[in-house]
Amino acid sequence: MKLRQLEALQAVAEMGSLQEAARRLFVTQPAISRSIRELEGELGIPLLVRSARGATLTPYAVGVLKRARAIHREVHRILEDVEAIRGALNGQLTLAMTPPASSRALAETLTELAASRPDAKLHVLEWRAEQIVEGLRDGAVDVALFTQFGDPPTASFEWQRLYELDTLLTISATYDGPTTLTIEQLHELPWIVLDSTDDLSSFIVTLFSAHGMPLPKRMIRCSSMNLYGELSLRMPAVSIWTTPAMPLLAPRFADGQLKQLQLYGGTPSIGMYLAYPSEDLLTATARDFVMRLRTKLGRPDKSGRLPAGIWLSGAKHA
Q1: What is the largest CA-CA distance in the chain?
Q2: Residue 189 near residue 178, CB atoms below 8 Å
Q3: Which residues lie closer than 8 Å to 208 by C-beta, 6 or more apart?
Q4: 295 Cβ partners below 8 Å, 6+ apart?
Q5: Which of 46, 181, 211, 307 makes an SS bond possible with 104, Cβ 3.0 to 4.6 Å?
Q6: pTM above the 0.85 mark?
Q7: Distance CA 148, CA 164 (A)
């Protein structure tokens, strides 16, 4: 199996035809066809369905393509490592994060990284936790910052628990019921959730499974953070937040648009995790980012607050 064969398959998948794939790779169409046939012969499976309208991948080829893309990314990272040894401050970092990861520490770290590596390509993606885990597994993500209830149940990437965030529940001011509720009362209310209800590490699954209860019957899933915020102001449904959102929520509490709900016994805290596929395979740019972020999170300011916006135990709140 050769890299040119995998590159040919990837080009056909992305361009939709052998002819366009050949143009993209600056080779002849017969050369592309030969590479695909050689790969099919070596694997013993058909990879393409050819027609007058182009070429499409077989189900077998989809799995091969996923691995081929991961190999392509690792080859690119080899080149980055060689450039780092030569002293070049370029490289690339793809950082995936969940919304609660937005923090002063992260902003400062990325600002410093961009200044120290002006030619580096930085990609910051805001994804849900389940998307991030998949990205770590297939190599699309270099480093991730994500929230999760309970430690990740996987050995396919390395992770570190950085800190914990408190969770809080809100509901639109149009709701006229009690604001301190039992778990049974909370279960009867409608909910707006960001995470998939198939995600066993999501807040709503964690909360109700801990009490031996099924999920609420009335749930709306909204993966858009902006729309989620708007719906939480308009609908008498429970929405889920973490402590970094308090600066945004506090004015809504003050002007009467939102109410905060309290649960007897409290709500579970959520962990913030730093993760990457492998310590050994971190590129120089990714390793620089991880080192800078860890340093900032370990240094509180004069008020006793960490750059993540989390107060140290016993410190006075401003």
Answers
A1: 72
A2: no
A3: 183, 187, 214, 215, 216
A4: none
A5: 307
A6: no
A7: 10
Q: How many CB atoms lie within 10 A of CB 69?
A: 18
Q: How far is CA 191 from the centre of its chain?
A: 23
Coil, helix or strand at residue 237: coil
Judge contact between 262 and 181, C-beta under 8 A: yes
Residue the block writes with tokens 């800078």 = 292
Q: Is 4:15 a contact under the CB 8 Å cutoff? A: no
Tokens 């016993």 — which residue?
314
pLDDT tens digits, 244-283: 888 889 999 999 999 999 999 999 888 899 999 887 778 8
The DSSP symbol for 32 reads H
Supply 227's token pair.
Answer: 């729309």
| Residue written as token pair 């050949």 | 22
Instruction: Tell me the average confidence (pLDDT) per consecutive run of 10 residues in the chain, 318 residues long.
Output: 78 80 81 83 81 76 76 66 57 88 89 91 88 83 89 78 91 95 97 88 91 95 90 95 88 94 92 86 87 81 48 36
